[in-house]
Amino acid sequence: ARGLPQAVAASRAAWGGPHLRLLEAGRPVQIRTFHSWFAALLRGAPVSVLQSLGLPTRFELLEDDQEAVARVWRRFHAAVERDGEARADYEASVASYGRFNTLKALDSALAKRVEFAMADAHGVVAESVRSFGEMFPEFAGAESVEALLQAEGVRHPLLDAARTLGRASAPTFVAKGVELEMAVTAGDLQGVLDALLTKGQEIRKFSEKLAGLDVVRAGQAVAVRMCEARTQHEAWLHHHRIARLARLLVEAYAGVKREHGWVDMSDVERTAHVLLSDPVLAGWVQERLDQQVRHLLIDEFQDTNALQWQALHAWLASYAGAGGDGPSVFIVGDPKQSIYRFRRAEPQVFEAAQRFIERDLQGDRLACDHTHRNAPAVLAAVNTVMQAAQRDGLYGGFRAHTTQSREACAVDALSAIPRPGEG
Questions:
Q1: Per-residue confidence (pLDDT) for residue 394, from 0 to 100
Q2: 214, 217, 191, 215: which is closest to 204 by C-alpha?
Q3: How far apart, in whole angstroms, are the C-alpha atoms of residue 118 and residue 253?
């Protein structure tokens, strides 16, 4: 049924021999999820490791963290209320982006709390959004975006543009010149932008016949750069506000778990990563794994998240260049079938694993574009969608799939998103 040659299928009565020998070998096959394997590592972890990670030595493993997440918000808001800086951050974020978007950002940070904590510990979070002074060298050294109007390189082009508009014959242009001069004098950045740019922050059009139009354009160019600098500064402020609040939220979440003696799946992954990557502990863990694992097969690898791969990579990388001394490794997956983003799955992890197997373990990459189970109409739909995605640069490396099946069927679209202009 699966395409085996008839002679092999006819000899299936002899298959009991290898199976029996496998059972008698004393090393049974284990089928485990990443979490069950990592949980086993956690249960055998030294107490010092658990303590360093803030985990209890006696714990209840949470398969679902919804209850813990539901309990954290009251504790978090109480902490915000007590902390003046946190309250200011929270109120500023709500004022700028609304309560829904603020809580959505914090909820996203909590969902990736381990990745957030690890990135934060290495300074990645603090450096993720650059200040406007770094992005705009001509504004470096300014204490704030508003203070830019005091800089000579900014003030002079703007005042020159104001004087040029003030000499125009059109009353509307003169009015904009007066408006611009007053805004520069008062240090009113928004007033400057309103005078030279439209509400959509685009360059305001002035007549091509305006004498000194190039001077006005130079002032508008400065205004555009200041507008971009302000946007960058607002992004920088928001990023750091949310980062500070996220640290408080993660701390509150850890407190909820400590109170109940809970350990969640993120803790399991983090502990496994520590055990498998620590230069001292890794040797001890690897020795145990060497005694237990001879062949490693990982299926549905496209649904692996980055932290799971880092833990696995830390173990397998120790065998790189060992001349086949480690377990055999066989990874199976299909990035276009990755459907677990809500569990932090990343299709790019599969590509990273491919490169590692080929480069560091000198393994082979095998590709299968032929199936025995999908009807032709199904694959026709898959080929159409994936080839279109590849043409649009949204996917790479796709090859048209074929099938052994001849089963007749039809593919119906559950929903369709109309293109612009199609209603």
A1: 84
A2: 217
A3: 16
